[in-house]
Design brief:
about 40% helix, Helicase, Ruva Protein, domain 3, 7 strands, 8 helices
Length: about 200
């Protein structure tokens, strides 16, 4: 039985990253080795430092070196509106536009019966408890325009129907099947500007 070399181990780990298959992982590993001092060693140090210091915010669910995160701790941000997103990448996409100055809540995914992802797995009870704690005047459903995103939005609309909190969602300028992290800033800004109220079913 052959023993896996460190290089083979690196390639196997790289191949597990999104968008990288075995071929791309081999190319990436060889490129890193060619630029060992300029790229590979700084990258290894950055990965190690990130693994040690980055944590999940216990308030909103984003990633930061502080808990609560810098957004939740920023007193200059509005406390009333809370924008609900699926993933941290969606939060970053919205922050890039500069269109929103309230708080966030990162679900960490969407409801999916096929994959067995229910409300508890997404921390929906924690979200509802946060909203019941008071201070929220508007909940913006900034979920991806996918089937699971729409299902999650529908579930949250029902769950918050009697809360007295204004419910809005991004306008349909976001294309069906599109994901926030891949949209251009202009599309996201237009979608935020045209958000509308969500009526309970």
């Amino acid at each position: 039985m052959s023993i896996e070399t460190p290089l083979e181990g690196l390639i196997a780990l790289l191949a597990r990253l999104p968008g990288l298959g075995p071929r791309s992982a081999r190319r990436a590993a060889l490129h890193l080795l060619k630029r060992r001092d300029a790229l590979m060693l700084p990258l290894a140090e950055a990965i190690s430092e990130t693994a040690r210091t980055i944590k999940t915010c216990t308030v909103c669910g984003t990633l930061d070196s502080a808990d609560p995160c810098r957004i939740c701790s920023d007193d200059s941000r509005a406390h009333g509106p809370i924008c609900i997103v699926e993933q941290v990448g969606d939060l970053w996409a919205i922050e890039r536009t500069g269109s929103f100055h309230g708080r966030y809540h990162v679900l960490g995914g969407t409801l999916s019966a096929l994959e067995g992802v229910g409300p508890e797995a997404l921390g929906v009870p924690r979200l509802l408890a946060r909203l019941k704690g008071g201070g929220a005047s508007e909940v913006i459903l900034a979920l991806n325009a996918t089937l699971d995103g729409q299902t999650t939005a529908y579930y949250l609309t029902e769950a918050l129907a009697d809360s007295g909190i204004k419910l809005t969602r991004l306008a349909h300028g976001v294309p069906v099947g599109g994901e926030l992290d891949y949209l251009d800033d202009g599309t996201l800004m237009a979608a935020f500007a045209a958000r509308r109220s969500v009526d309970a079913p």
